[in-house]
Write a structure and sequence with these properties.
Blueprint: H1 4-34, H2 37-61, H3 67-88
Helix pairs in contact: 1-2, 2-3
Amino acid sequence: MTSEIPFLVIVLKTITLLIGGFITYTAFSAARKSGWKGLTYLAAGFGIVTFGSLLAGVGDQLLLFSTHNALIAENALTAIGFAVIAYSLYVTQ
């Protein structure tokens, strides 16, 4: 049963990376087309959140970070990313 948990985590991280990457790309493309600064911050925020997930997964599985440090890094980048996303809602042209 324990061996199933890491596989499930890898599957969920992969889904998170795919969806996060899609959102980041779509927001960045929309920002380029529209020139709206808020979309640029939105793309950056989602990119930071997605990168945090990637860093935690790679760090834990491949770079042999401790699970504790991987979770701290992921949660710190998630908090920063969400702060950037929140800021994007208040940016005006």
